[in-house]
Write a structure and sequence with these properties.
Layout lengths: L1 E9 L3 H10 L5 E5 L12 E2 L7 H11 L6 H20 L14 E2 L9 E2 L6 H15 L3 E4 L1 E8 L4 E8 L2 E12 L10 E2 L8 H8 L4 E2 L4 E8 L6 E2 L6 H4 L3 E3 L19 H15 L4 E4 L5 H7 L1 H9 L9 E10 L2 E3 L11 E3 L4 E2 L12 H18 L9 E5 L6 H11 L6 H12 L5 H15 L21 E7 L5 E8 L4
Parallel strand pairs: 1-2, 1-9, 2-6, 9-18, 10-13, 17-19
Antiparallel strand pairs: 3-5, 4-5, 7-8, 7-20, 8-9, 11-17, 11-21, 12-16, 14-15, 15-16, 21-22
Bound molecules: flavin-adenine dinucleotide (FAD).
Length: 503
C-alpha cells in the first residue's frame, strides 16, 4: 500500500513537533514516531537570553563550552531566535516556573555565565515542552503514525521521495516531496545511556544510506551525573546539572571535593571537563561511581525544584535531601550528526534533518547545557519556513527502496562502542573497534557505532568531549571537522576534512 503527503517528519520530539507545527498551516504533513524520544525526559530546562540577558553572552558561553569549535553564524541564529521561539511556546500554553512577581524563574547550569535556564515543573521541563507542542500539533490537525521508519525511497534523479514504515509487522511506502529526519540521538548504540530505547541512531543510518554526509561524529557527550543504580545497561536516570547549579558538589569516596581547583567554575565547569574528572577519580579509586552532595541545599528548595530527581533517588533507596547520592557519567547526547545547512537541508535533495540527529555546528565539540531543546525549537521552525516557502515539486519516475539491514548481535555492537568510544579513548582501542565492528554487518546500530569509531580514530587530538589518552592536547592541525560517508562496501568512513566553523 502506498500513500502520499507533502512532507514526512520522522520523530515526535521537540525538533519534529516544532517542524510539523510550523508546516501545519500550509502543508499536508505526517509525523511518524517510534515512541517518545529524549524530549519528555529533559530535566534542567531551556537556555534562552531573556529579560536583560544578552544573546551574545549566550553565544559566547556556547562557544566556550563547544571548545571554540562551533559554527558562529548558526550559534547566532540559535541564541537570537531562541527567545522568540520560547515566547511562542508559552503562547501555545507551555507553563514554565515563575517567580512571585510573575517573571520566568531562571537557573544556572554548567558552562553558563549567568542564570538563563528556564524550567517547568521544577525538573520536568521536557515533559511540559512536549505536552505543549503535542497539543498544539494535534490542534493544528497534524496526523501522527506510530511505527518505525526502516528505509527511505530515492528517485533515479537522486532525490529522497518517500519513506518505508514498519507498523504491525508490515512495511508501507509513503511518498513525500520532502522528508525531515528528527530522530534524536544515538543513546541506545551504547550499553548505558540517559536516552530512552527508541533513540538508537536510526536517522544517522537512514541518512548515510541515502548518500548524505555526517560531521563531528566523534563528539559524543557523556553526562557527568547519571544516578548510579547498580545497573550498567539500559536507560539510567539523570540527575540534572541544575542540582549543581543550586550548589551541590561532587565528592570522592573520602569526601574530598572532586572539582575544587580543577576549573575556575569548579562543579559548574562544562560537562566534558566534569565527566573526565569523575572518570579519572573512578579509575584512580577503582570505584563504579562518585558522590553528589546536595545536603547543603535547603530541603524545600530540593523538593520544589527537583521532584523527578527525588523520585528516581527514592526508587533506589537514597535521599537527595539528607545524604550524598551515587552518580557516574553516562552517554547522553550526540553533538555531531547529519550535516545540514542552517535551514536543515542535508546534501541529498529532498532530505532534511533537525534536532539532535542534525549537525549544524551549534554544539561544537561539546554541547552547552540546555541548548538542545532550544536547538529543536529554533531549527525545527527554520526547516518549516524553508519548506513552506520552497517545497520541491513532486517528480514522477522510477525510484529505489533503501531499506536498512537488520542488526546482527546488537548487544555486542553496544559493548564494543561502550568499551572503545567512551569518555577516554586511544588509537589502539579504536582500531580494534573498527575491526570488531567489520564482522557485524551494516545494520543501523553497526553503522552508527562505526561512524563514531572511525571519526574518533581519525581525530588525533583531544577537544571537547572527544578525549584521546594518546593525543591528550588540542592540536591546531586538527582544527577541522571530519566528514563521514559510506564507502564502496556500504561502511562509514572518513572522507573529507572541513575547516573549523564551516560545519
Ligand atoms: C534524561 C535527559 C535529560 C535531558 N535534559 C535536557 C535539558 O534539560 N535541556 C536540554 O536542552 N536538553 C536536555 N536533554 C537533551 C534533549 O532532551 C534532547 O537532545 C532533545 O530532546 C532531542 O530532541 P529531538 O526532537 O531531536 O529528538 P527526541 O526527543 O529524542 O525524539 C526522537 C524521535 O524520533 C523517533 N524515532 C527515532 N528513530 C525512529 C524511526 N526509525 N522511525 C520513527 N521514529 C523514530 C523517536 O521515537 C522520537 O519520537 C536531555 C536528554 C535526556 C535523555
Amino acid at each position: 500500500m502506498t500513500r502520499a503527503v507533502d512532507i514526512v517528519v520522522i520523530g515526535s520530539g521537540v525538533a519534529g513537533l516544532s517542524a510539523a507545527l510550523g508546516l501545519a498551516a500550509t502543508r499536508d504533513v505526517l509525523v511518524i514516531s517510534a515512541g517518545d524520544g529524549s524530549t519528555p525526559w529533559a530535566q534542567g530546562g531551556v537556555a534562552a537570553a531573556y529579560g536583560g540577558d544578552d544573546p551574545l553572552d549566550h553565544a559566547h558561553d556556547t562557544d566556550v563550552a563547544g571548545a571554540g569549535f562551533c559554527d558562529p553564524r548558526n550559534v547566532r541564529a540559535l541564541v537570537e531566535e531562541g527567545p522568540q521561539r520560547l515566547a511562542e511556546l508559552i503562547a501555545h500554553g507551555a507553563r514554565f516556573d515563575r517567580n512571585a512577581d510573575g517573571s520566568l524563574s531562571r537557573t544556572l547550569e554548567g558552562g553558563h555565565g549567568r542564570p538563563r535556564v528556564v524550567h517547568a515543573g521544577g525538573d520536568a521541563t521536557g515533559a511540559e515542552v512536549h505536552r505543549a507542542l503535542r497539543s498544539a500539533v494535534q490542534l493544528a490537525g497534524v496526523e501522527t503514525l506510530h511505527g518505525r521508519t526502516v528505509g527511505l525511497v530515492k528517485s533515479d534523479a537522486g532525490r529522497v521521495v518517500g519513506v518505508l514504515v514498519e507498523t504491525g509487522g508490515e512495511v508501507t511506502q509513503i511518498d513525500a516531496r520532502a522528508v525531515v529526519l528528527a530522530t534524536g540521538g544515538i543513546g541506545n548504540a551504547y550499553l548505558a545511556s540517559t536516552n530512552p530505547s527508541s533513540v538508537r541512531g536510526d536517522g544517522i543510518a537512514l541518512a548515510l544510506r541515502a548518500g548524505a554526509s555526517l560531521v563531528d561524529m566523534e563528539f559524543v557527550q557523556f553526562h557527568p551525573t547519571a544516578l548510579f543504580t547498580g545497573d550498567t545497561s539500559g536507560q539510567l536516570p539523570l540527575v540534572t546539572e541544575a542540582v549543581r547549579g543550586e550548589g551541590a558538589v561532587l565528592r570522592d569516596a573520602e569526601g574530598r571535593r572532586i572539582m575544587a581547583g580543577r576549573h575556575p567554575r569548579a562543579d559548574l565547569a562544562p560537562r566534558d571537563v566534569v565527566a573526565r574528572a569523575i572518570d579519572a577519580t573512578m579509575r584512580r579509586d577503582g570505584s563504579s561511581h562518585v558522590w553528589l552532595d546536595a545536603t547543603g541545599i535547603a530541603a524545600e528548595v530540593l523538593r520544589e525544584r527537583f521532584p523527578t530527581v527525588l523520585a528516581s533517588c527514592a526508587r533506589i533507596g537514597v535521599d537527595l535531601v539528607s545524604e550524598q547520592i551515587p552518580v557516574a557519567p553516562a552517554e547522553h547526547f550526540l553533538c555531531g550528526g547529519v550535516r545540514t545547512d542552517r535551514d536543515g537541508a542535508t546534501d541529498v535533495p529532498g532530505l532534511y534533518a533537525v534536532g539532535e540527529v542534525a549537525a549544524t555546528g551549534v554544539h561544537g565539540a561539546n554541547r552547552l547545557a540546555s541548548n538542545s531543546l532550544l536547538e529543536g525549537l529554533v531549527f525545527g521552525r527554520r526547516v518549516a519556513t524553508t519548506l513552506t516557502l520552497d517545497l520541491p515539486v513532486a517528480i514522477a519516475g522510477r525510484s529505489r527502496e533503501l531499506l536498512l539491514d537488520e542488526d546482527r548481535e546488537p548487544e555486542r555492537i553496544r559493548a564494543i562502542l561502550t568499551k572503545y568510544a567512551g569518555i577516554r579513548r586511544d588509537g589502539a582501542g579504536l582500531n580494534a573497534a573498527v575491526d570488531e565492528l567489520d564482522a557485524l554487518g551494516n545494520g543501523p546500530l553497526a553503522t552508527v557505532a562505526r561512524s563514531v569509531v572511525v571519526a574518533a580514530a581519525a581525530r588525533r587530538d583531544s577537544r571537547g568531549c572527544h578525549w584521546r589518552s594518546d593525543y591528550p592536547g588540542v592540536d591546531e592541525r586538527w582544527n577541522e571537522h571530519l566528514v563521514v560517508r559510506l564507502d564502496e562496501d556500504g561502511r562509514p568512513a572518513v572522507r573529507q576534512l572541513l575547516p573549523s566553523g564551516t560545519c
